[in-house]
Design goal:
It is a single chain. The protein is an alpha/beta fold and 241 residues long. 31% of the residues lie in helices and 21% in strands. It contains seven helices and ten strands. The chain has a six-stranded mixed beta sheet with strand order 4-1-5-9-6-10, with helices on both faces. A two-stranded antiparallel ribbon has the order 2-3. Strands 7-8 form a two-stranded antiparallel ribbon. The two termini are 36 Å apart.
């Protein structure tokens, strides 16, 4: 059985922490290029597009072989805008203007330059293998365990996840190895059934299946320090070949 799978890269132009982050040079090419290049290697994605409000980002995307069928309206490009309205806009535009519809959508963020084509294909195949699932989300082992986290109430530290929820008294005093494994979403690749977005009005749905990645492949760039770390990891990766 074949599926129509849309790859959708989200890259707005208004990054404040790192100006022009999505097209900032990383290892000799724009950050965005890594995502486009890996996505284009797979034969599973039927079509690869970008949703951006920035002409400069759009130009870079086209240079690397990504479609730019529309420019994202400004109301969907603010700091506080969530993914759902961005995806709803893209899917409605494609259906209205081109009569195009897909079975699944692969969310690819340009801030995950260490994600490989094998990860993209692995996540897609995971959703295909779970016909009852609404989506697949990539995760890696959490670098900091949530049972060792706190919130501050007045002048007191209070366990962020209380014992009555975790079932572990004073979990913050346990060695990490004795705690159950915890995973964090790494922002590398999400695969969502179209109907999850259009019919359920959510980017994940009720049944989310994990796609587990290694921590060294899971960097998500948000700061200048993340860029520096990505440069080191990329050099190490190239040295393997």
């Amino acid at each position: 059985m074949s599926f129509e799978i849309l790859g959708l890269i989200t890259a707005r132009g208004g990054s404040k922490t790192v100006p022009k982050k999505n097209i900032k040079d990383l290892g000799g090419k724009p950050l965005l290029a890594y995502t486009i290049e890996e996505a284009r290697k797979t034969g599973l994605i039927s079509r690869l597009i970008i949703s951006t409000d920035c002409e400069e980002i759009a130009a870079v995307a086209m240079d690397y072989g990504c479609e730019v069928p529309f420019m994202r309206p400004s109301e969907f490009a603010g700091d506080m805008v969530q993914d759902l309205p961005v995806f709803e806009h893209a899917l409605k535009w494609l259906e209205r203007e081109e009569g195009y519809s897909s079975d699944m959508v692969v969310h690819l963020r340009p801030t995950a330059p260490l994600r490989r084509v094998t990860h993209i294909e692995g996540a897609i195949k995971t959703l295909i293998a779970h016909p009852d699932a609404d989506s697949v989300r990539s995760v890696c082992l959490a670098p900091k365990h949530p049972l060792k986290m706190w919130r501050i109430e007045g002048d007191r530290l209070v366990s962020y996840i209380p014992a009555e929820v975790s079932g572990i008294k004073e979990s913050y005093n346990y060695p990490r190895q004795k705690l159950p494994e915890a995973y964090v979403q790494n922002g590398s690749v999400d695969v969502i059934r179209r109907k999850t977005i259009t019919d359920m009005g959510t980017m994940s749905g009720d049944l989310i299946v994990p796609y587990v990645m290694e921590e060294e492949d899971s960097i998500n760039i948000d700061t200048f320090m993340d860029f520096a770390m990505a440069e080191i990891l990329l050099r190490d990766r190239l040295a393997e070949f």
